[in-house]
Amino acid sequence: MDFSSKLLENAVNEVSRLPGIGKRTALRLVLHLLKQPTDHTKYLSEALLQVRNDVKTCKKCHNISDTILCAICQNPKRNPEIVCVVEDIRDVMAIESTAQFKGLYHVLGGKISPIEGIGPQNLQIDSLINKVESGEVKELIFALSSTMEGDTTNFYIYKQIEKFDITTSTIARGIAVGDELEYADEVTLGRSIVNRIPFEQSIRG
Question: Would the pTM count as exceeding 0.85?
Fold first, then answer.
């Protein structure tokens, strides 16, 4: 791709570093920004810098937040005895959109994947086990994607906590095997949360 401007080329190269954005899409986005009022580009730049510099991680659930504790953890109407274990913030947003879950979350920050060099020590698993050990959690809902990595992570956590008096469940298989939660429709995902099954049953199945 030949560019008439080095500045344009640099901008396209940076935008194309984003996931799912190729050079042609990046070029369309940059050309679009060039046609907008200068203030629009300024506001976008400031918003990106602010989220990069000022965004925090909730110290309780590891969700992305503007404050030390996220709005979900601060909500007195949520049930702290039920914790839904998810991979990242996109899964929290997907489940919240169903309005079917009233407990809290625990964001692992990924899934165990030896191929990618991601082990239990790279995830927020120890803090989850600490919650279980403290006795504050009565049920864990495993809501990781139905992939080999997701199942491996679920099973690893299950083995770490099986000695404790806690209920473990997993979302019902209304979500197709291999699917990511963020792409599930709200009705299907909502039903999968409500109709969750004991984790032991999912292992036998």
Answer: no
